[in-house]
Amino acid sequence: MTAAPDLLGPVVGFRAWRIVDRRLLSPHIPVRWEGRTMHAACYPANRRLTFGRGWLSAPHASPHPECKCGIYAYHRPGVRSWFGEFDWVEGVVGCWGRLEAHTDGLRAEQARVEGLVAPGDGDASRRVAVQVIAARLQVPVVARGELEDLATQVGAPLPPALLPQSGVSCRTDH
Ligand SMILES: [Zn+2]
Question: In the chain, at which residue ranges do the beta strands (DSSP E only) sit?
Fold first, then answer.
């Protein structure tokens, strides 16, 4: 594709985080979400995690079509929401800036947490941690069944026409 289509508003995405010390962490790379909004960057340390495979070595803006960097989100909730022994939480993000579209999800230049899912009743410590995080970020905590309703208030999913091909670039400035 030669021209990057402009989208009208934030693209909604679903993702999960690890919870460590009542903070959100990216599940696969050592990045802590200090605030509500995360800006993508291609960290040299990430390349070492996979011995450089799939990562660009030359400096570039993130996300890049030929790299693995960017903020990951899925088009649908629950695609990947379990991380072994770690505490984790699902949530919804609004994504904007440069976007790399993939079949199951996208990589974004900017993403903002818009809500977190309350853990089940049997998991008291994790429920408290999610409440503390949500209060700090000033985002709602919703039941799992309310996640898609919340998502409709955040934005629209990527248009289906962009999804079948992996690696389509597009952008939205809102
Ligand atoms: Zn990169």
Answer: 11-20, 23-25, 32-33, 37-39, 71-74, 88-101, 105-117, 141-142, 168-172
Token pair 């899925």 is found at 74
Q: Does 167 have pLDDT greater than 90?
A: no
- Distance, in Å, from the CA atom of 25 to the CA atom of 41, rounded to the nearest integer, reads 15
Q: Strand locations in 118-157, DSSP E?
A: 141-142
Residue range 33-73, pLDDT digits in tens: 999 999 999 877 666 666 667 788 888 999 998 898 999 99
Asked if 144 and 78 count as a contact pair (C-beta separation under 8 A), the reply is: no
CA atoms within 13 A of residue 80's CA, in its CB half-sphere: 16
Instruction: Give the C-alpha separation, 144 to 83, whole Å.
Output: 17
CA of 29 from ligand 1 middle (Å) equals 13
- The predicted model scores a pTM of 0.86
Question: Around ion ligand 1, which residues have CB less than 5 A away?
Answer: 42, 64, 67, 69
- The DSSP letter of residue 69 is -
